[in-house]
Amino acid sequence: MDVLSTIHGTELPEISTPTFLHFIPLLLSNPLIQNTVHQTHQYGSFPSQKLDVYTPPAGTKPAGNALKPPLFLFYYGGGYMSGRKQMSLLSPQGQTMYLPNLASLLESQQVLELEKDPTAIDRLYHQNIGTFLASHGFVAVIPDYRLVNMNPGYEFNPENDAIFPSGAEDVTLSMKWAVHNLSEIADTETVFAMGHSAGANHLATAILLPNFIPADLELMSRLKKWCTLSATFDYIHSREQRRVAWSRYFGGFERIKERCPTALVRGLREGEAGRLPDLLCLHAKRDHFGAVDPQGRFWDAWVEKGGQGRMEVVRGESHNHMSTIYGVGCGDEEVEGWLLDVLRWSCEK
Asked: What are the structural domains of the chain?
């Protein structure tokens, strides 16, 4: 954790590469991450509508003293424009704008494990999340979802390209698939969901818009609690790339103010949030301001509309926007403690 305090800045281009480079050797030495076997399933008809399922290792006690492991869905972040359930960070297609020149940096730092298996890095992020959740007695599900096409002059393709409310559609469809198809291995009557950054926005939208998760009473009864981590609930002026991504997703920059999660929660009827599952609303101590100020506005509106739960800063004084995710599986409880807190909160009655 001390190393994280030496990484200056809060915005993703400043923190992503040094944060990831710090945790790579630790994650590569974790046999759970390297040796796990997950299953991939198609949850919808579009190419991007796939998900990975991680089951607890043999002998693992189900979380919450249940007979079967509860179901835990995780929706990753990526600014609406990047991210995968398993990131191919060494390939040009998988490289993100936040991790430039990663391959050359790894070579210069002589990451020995990659000499044996250059693809090992592709099993880190977000396989580290799936294996951690499974090792603590949950059946973990990590879905892909449609992303904003950032190419100039592109022709919109609804099968691959995201536009509001496609994120909510993909969240709802993947959650429905999980509860209807995993009952043999999971307690699908007990469902928890968490989203990070843009993934948290999609999860919030699916819960707040009445024609998505709330429209399915069976699904609503199974979803017990939800958690948002470092969500960017409304837009604060930032880099041009972020502005373009938000504008394309919400159908124009002027539409953000009426379609973002903060606007959706403000649009609920009096007391309506009280009928939704409890929310744990989290951000990191050194998060970027686009994930801190909007969270306060969202939480105030959530409480005003009757919403229940807690808003907290995660454990770990030096955590930034990405270290919470990159560090899971590193073996340092100070780094991973925030997620342990989430899991304990999820199982509280």
From this structure: 3-347 (3.40.50.1820)
3-state SS class at 14: helix
Q: ∠ CA 146-252-45 to the nearest 5 degrees?
A: 20
Mean pLDDT, residues 16-37: 90
Least confident of 6-10, 175-179, 190-194: 6-10
From the number of C-beta atoms within 10 Å of its C-beta (0-12, 13-18, 19+), residue 72 rates as buried
Of 174, 227, 224, 236, nearest to 204 (Cα)? 227
11: left (phi over 0), alpha (psi -120 to 50) or beta: beta
- Residue 242 vs residue 265, higher pLDDT: 265
Q: Give residue 286's Cα distance to chain centre.
A: 18
pLDDT above 90 (res 24) = no
Q: How confident is the model at residue 38 (pLDDT cuts 50, 70, 90)?
A: very high
CA separation for the pair 346, 22 (Å, rounded): 29
Q: What is the token pair recorded at 101?
A: 């020149």
Residues 81-104, mean pLDDT to the nearest whole number: 67
Could you tell me which residues come within 8 angstroms of residue 262 by beta carbon, excluding any fewer than 6 positions away?
233, 234, 294, 297, 298, 301
For CA atoms 200, 202, 203, 204, the dihedral sign is positive
Q: What b/e string do you get for 280-297 counting C-beta neighbours within 10 Å, with b at 16 or more? A: bbbbbebbbebbbbbbee
Residue 252 has pLDDT above 70, yes or no: yes
Q: Which residues, including other chains, have CB under 8 Å from residue 270's CB and lie 6 or more apart?
A: 305, 306
pLDDT in tens, 39-92: 999 999 999 999 999 999 999 999 998 999 999 999 999 999 989 998 776 555
**Closest C-alpha to 330, from 129, 137, 139:** 129
Compute the distance between CA of residue 85 and CA of residue 217 in angstroms, rounded to an integer: 28
